[in-house]
Design brief:
By secondary structure, this protein is α+β, with helices and mostly antiparallel strands. The protein has three domains: about 60 residues; about 80 residues, Sandwich (Immunoglobulin-like); about 140 residues, TonB-dependent receptor, plug domain (Ferric Hydroxamate Uptake Protein, Chain A, domain 1), CATH 2.170.130.10. Helices cover about 30% and strands about 30% of the residues. It is built from seven helices and 16 strands. The strands form four sheets. A six-stranded mixed β-sheet has the order 8-14-13-16-15-9. It has a four-stranded antiparallel β-sheet with strand order 3-2-5-6, with no helix packed on it. It has a three-stranded mixed β-sheet with strand order 4-1-7, with no helix packed on it. α1 packs across α3 and α2 packs antiparallel against α3. The longest helix has 27 residues. It is elongated, with a radius of gyration of 31 Å.
Length: about 290
């Protein structure tokens, strides 16, 4: 018998309607058959009630839930990751970790779950974990820090693009533009997530799990066609010895403006020679105050 059907039948036994039916049956039995049959009916009902209670307890205990504590720390040591935004199963906003790197999720069902973590200075985290009566708490998860070399300014090929022309290019409506206010509203989210969720961009997975902007592949494409990337007027990809930047390591609050050109035909003339797969133009706040 399915648990759902069993629960509905047990609920009926405890309902006012079922009690009225039983009382009418008892009254009829008393009138028609006397005290002996009445006592037999009472005994039968008592046994049925006890059995129903036992079955109900088993069904209720089949799937447990509990408050779950999750602790985030830096990979390789015990340093707590504070202020990390944690999401469970794509829909449960668990909040931010405290000074000890802990976030608590109330009434979480036992079993397997998915966790997503975004923390400033750390690579975006996405993994599975399991909860249950025998799982020690807090559940320990390690985040990889973003290395200083990853965030250092890359060398690149100078272009004629200027931040001063941002609004003029925006007026032409040839791409998707994010102003400083819009970037502030997306604060804390990796840029890969912002471009994918808010601009419909295609994000390809790099050889080491990086999130890189590419043109949406065709059926015949054997590998991604990565978009050109410009930072503060310098083209950092394609550039000799450079790989497409990992957009999980760039955050909106670091930028003063962003320009996304998904189709090659829409990219500014200054990039036409190197943007066969679209382009991403980033203007940082450090360089454009």
């Amino acid at each position: 018998m399915e648990n759902g059907g069993l629960c509905r039948r047990l609920s009926f036994l405890a309902s006012p309607t079922s009690l009225r039916v039983l009382l009418r049956a008892l009254a009829t039995a008393i009138r028609e058959s006397g005290t002996l049959i009445f006592m037999r009916i009472v005994r039968a009902l008592s046994l049925a009630s006890v059995g129903a209670a036992m079955l109900s307890a088993r069904v209720v205990g089949a799937q447990g839930s509990r408050e779950v504590a999750i602790r985030l720390h830096r990979a390789g040591d015990t340093v707590s990751v504070r202020g990390a935004a944690v999401t469970i199963d794509h829909t449960i906003e668990a909040g931010n970790t405290d000074s000890a790197g802990i976030v608590r999720v109330p009434d979480l069902e036992d079993g397997g779950h998915i966790i997503e973590v975004v923390a400033r200075g750390y690579q975006a985290y996405f993994d599975n974990f399991t909860t249950g009566a025998n799982v020690p708490q807090p559940i320990q998860l390690a985040l990889l820090p973003v290395l200083a070399s990853d965030t250092a300014k890359a060398k690149g090929q100078p272009t004629d693009l200027k931040f001063a022309g941002f609004n003029a290019r925006r007026t032409k409506g040839q791409g998707k533009f994010f102003t400083r206010a819009q970037l502030d509203a997306a604060s804390g989210r990796p840029l890969a997530n912002v471009l994918k969720a808010d601009a419909g961009a295609f994000i390809a997975a790099g050889p080491h799990g990086e999130s890189q902007l590419a043109m949406r592949p065709t059926a015949k494409a054997s590998s991604p066609c990565f978009a050109a990337v410009v930072r503060d007027g310098a083209r950092i990809y394609p550039f000799a010895g450079a790989n497409p930047p990992d957009l999980d390591k760039i955050f909106p609050e670091q930028l003063a403006g962003l320009e996304l050109y998904v189709r090659p035909a829409t990219v500014p003339a200054e990039l036409r020679d190197a943007a066969n797969c679209g382009a991403l133009v980033l203007w940082t706040r450090d360089a454009n105050r």
